[in-house]
């Protein structure tokens, strides 16, 4: 069985600054931390030989899914998305976090050193599901989709305690949303919705007439968090960022998923067209501890890191 997204690995310029930001804005706590170094880590994370890093795993107290794994490397890097002038390019793009009140959360984000990209806007996601949505940047320029959800009673997303959430989804810009959805469905994910979003070009900063095909999928073990969100800008093609989305460059480098059988998962991912980044390696890495791990490129160059904990 393959899990929901256990963690997203995000490279930052200053680990302590970024930890403080997410602690101040979302009341996250530091759940684990470690040094990242050695041949196994270099293979798994595509790190240049000799590069080292410090990592901290953050999330709400007691959370085990949808965690944020921040890492600061000992050599400087550049934001691999640059100034986001090519928003249509493919790869892991945004971290989505649910809050009780979007206006309060955005104000807190700005006060902590973040900045806004798009002001809160209301849209209907699906029948019985709508949201106040916003786009912002954290101190490193990573895109945060902070949203306030309005879910009908009985919805998979209706159960919510009001605290800022774990990572609800990690968004991937894709070239073909249907093909990518088929890939993740074959891994065991289930579609929550498939929607063409129109007339929101100003919110997403897109050329007039560009539609957004949005498919949201969840793992059966975690329907309300750690989901995959696929975003295709229809009629606005991009290019993969896999050659730039590597350490020490800054941005969302990968997502981690747990599996109870890494060999079987590797065979499945390869059969579906995934390309191995490295062979399976053994290492100690939070939030898993000692684990057998292997990374793959997904359909649009996004890196998927599979772990079989010991």
From TrEMBL:
Every VOC domain range: 4-149, 165-309
UniProt-listed InterPro entries: Glyas_Bleomycin-R_OHBP_Dase (IPR029068), Glyas_Fos-R_dOase_dom (IPR004360), VOC_core (IPR037523)
The protein's name: Glyoxalase-like domain-containing protein
Species annotation: Thermomonospora echinospora
Lineage summary: Bacteria, Bacillati, Actinomycetota, Actinomycetes, Streptosporangiales
